[in-house]
């Protein structure tokens, strides 16, 4: 094992594996410590289209494509009295698609890719303590191997905390993770065979079905014929109903029986796995970076799964983090300036989705009103309709567009002030679930766009000649490629409109 890697990554999920692979490909020495032995189970199977371009840059694309996951080309939302048919090919780009994945396999493929790209990957390694110098910069970690008592110490120049919900820095050391009181929800799920998709679904689409009591179901097709079917509802309401029904399983099945649209999708289907549950999972860290460290993926933040943002935010944050770290380590930009870019782009991506999810949970007045608000969250692709703007955001492509320079607005002091206001608001005790949620303070953040003439207004991520940050204007080839996923794997069914 290398004695002093330049970068130490804690955690081998999509965020950690992607950071490690990208930095290793950029010539940076990387060691990754993962607490578990992969493959291991994880929920969060539905990917956004944006993930594919990051997989390509990290070197993982061919490995993932060869596995044969279910192709996904959009979603159908049966949301209250509306039906949203979100066909990515028709609304965004003929080549916009992604996968529905088995996360145990998908995450394992990404971790093996990190090793293939040159990162040193050590599994079953648990970080016990982070050591800091006199300037509060992390310089080493103490860790143990499974089944051993020996405490090992690894030094580094830079730390990436991708430790998931355990939160080595944000949760355990700094204690700066804030729960979103408005999203204290529980997810209850299982797996089924013999189910079907809504008849108007694009290929492999996620189906989302809301319920009168203020919750919603996800319904996701997987390549092996199984469907992941989960119910999300406020923790308080769930606790009341579980007491009435006697168990989470009984409540889950009764809610399915009382949701006619889901009954149609599960007609003749058989449940093939035990019930699982997770709760109170929406949060954000006060800081996403600092001297000598960044926090990415679930270690930094997580949002209610309504728009399937988990892997997107993990890999997008990993991409912007790796570009910023590599640039700073090469001495091409000061570390504070490079990390300011990471902080801004990552926080902006998170807050954009926070706004959209919040709007869906508030008292709903129809898709036209909702889509029109979504269009205010981006100024790129000015010719898009409101529905196209929403679809581009929920496919993750707006974030890729902004960080690549197609639409970039920065100003770390200003955005930090606005972000604090948004987080304070989202943590307010008087937010109610699915109704009477006044989001006007949040929308005012986005209706007051930052100017482009700031010190970092023209900064963007580039992969040529090496991963990093640049102010060089984009080439025509970059403009064509950066915000568009690569072509589907050989043998994938044709696009259907």
TrEMBL record:
Xref: InterPro entries = FAD/NAD-bd_sf, Flavin-dep_Halogenase_NPB, Flavin_halogenase
The lineage's top-level taxon is Bacteria
For whether the record's keyword set contains Oxidoreductase, the answer is yes
Q: Which family does it belong to?
A: Belongs to the flavin-dependent halogenase family. Bacterial tryptophan halogenase subfamily.
List the Pfam families hit by this protein, alphabetically.
Answer: Trp_halogenase (PF04820)
Q: What is this protein called?
A: NAD(P)/FAD-dependent oxidoreductase
Q: Which GO terms describe its molecular function?
A: monooxygenase activity
Show the segment(s) annotated as Disordered. Answer: 473-497
Return the Basic and acidic residues bias intervals. 473-482
Q: What keyword terms does UniProt attach to this protein?
A: Monooxygenase, Oxidoreductase
**PANTHER family (UniProt xref):** FAD-BINDING DOMAIN-CONTAINING PROTEIN, FAD-BINDING PROTEIN
Q: Output compositional bias ranges, type Pro residues.
A: 486-497
UniProt KW Oxidoreductase keyword: yes
């Amino acid at each position: 094992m290398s004695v002093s890697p330049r970068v130490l990554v804690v955690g081998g999920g999509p965020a950690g594996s992607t950071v490690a692979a990208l930095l290793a490909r950029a010539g940076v020495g990387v060691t990754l410590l993962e607490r578990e032995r992969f493959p291991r189970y994880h929920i969060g199977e539905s990917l956004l289209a944006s993930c594919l371009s990051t997989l390509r840059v990290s070197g993982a694309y061919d490995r993932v494509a060869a596995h044969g996951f279910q192709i996904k080309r959009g979603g159908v939302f049966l949301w209250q009295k509306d039906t949203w048919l979100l066909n990515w090919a028709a609304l965004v780009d003929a080549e916009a698609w992604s996968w529905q994945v088995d996360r145990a396999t998908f995450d394992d493929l990404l971790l093996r890719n990190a090793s293939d790209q040159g990162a040193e990957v050590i599994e079953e390694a648990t970080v016990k303590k982070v050591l800091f110098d006199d300037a509060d910069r992390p310089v080493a970690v103490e860790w143990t191997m499974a089944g051993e008592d020996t405490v090992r110490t690894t030094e580094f120049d830079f730390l990436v905390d991708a430790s998931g919900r355990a939160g080595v820095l944000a949760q355990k050391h700094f204690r700066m993770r804030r729960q979103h009181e408005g999203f204290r929800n529980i997810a209850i799920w299982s797996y089924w065979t013999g189910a079907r998709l809504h008849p108007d679904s694009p290929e492999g689409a996620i189906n989302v079905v809301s319920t009168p009591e203020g919750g919603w179901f996800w319904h996701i097709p997987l390549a092996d014929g199984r469907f992941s079917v989960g119910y999300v509802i406020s923790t308080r309401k769930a606790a009341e109903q579980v007491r009435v029904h006697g168990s989470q399983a009984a409540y889950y099945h009764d809610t399915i029986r009382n949701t006619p649209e889901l009954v149609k999708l599960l007609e003749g289907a058989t449940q093939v796995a035990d019930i699982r549950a997770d709760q109170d999972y929406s949060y954000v860290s006060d800081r996403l970076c600092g001297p000598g460290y960044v926090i990415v993926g679930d270690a930094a933040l997580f949002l209610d799964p309504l728009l399937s943002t988990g892997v997107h935010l993990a890999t997008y944050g990993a991409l912007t983090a790796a570009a910023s770290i590599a640039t700073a380590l090469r001495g091409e930009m000061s570390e504070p300036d490079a990390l300011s870019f990471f902080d801004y782009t990552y926080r902006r991506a998170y807050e954009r989705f926070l706004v959209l999810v919040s709007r869906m949970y508030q008292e709903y007045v129809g898709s036209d009103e909702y889509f029109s608000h979504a269009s205010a969250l981006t100024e790129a692709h000015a010719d898009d309709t409101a529905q196209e703007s929403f679809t581009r955001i929920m496919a993750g492509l707006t974030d890729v567009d902004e960080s690549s320079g197609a639409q970039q607005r920065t100003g770390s002091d200003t955005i930090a002030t606005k972000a604090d206001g948004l987080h304070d608001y989202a943590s307010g005790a008087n937010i109610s679930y699915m109704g009477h949620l006044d989001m006007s303070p949040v929308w005012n953040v986005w209706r007051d766009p930052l100017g482009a003439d700031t010190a970092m207004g023209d900064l963007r991520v580039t992969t040529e000649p090496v991963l990093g940050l640049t102010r060089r204007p984009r080439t025509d080839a970059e403009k064509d490629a950066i915000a568009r996923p690569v072509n589907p794997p050989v043998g994938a069914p044709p696009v259907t409109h």
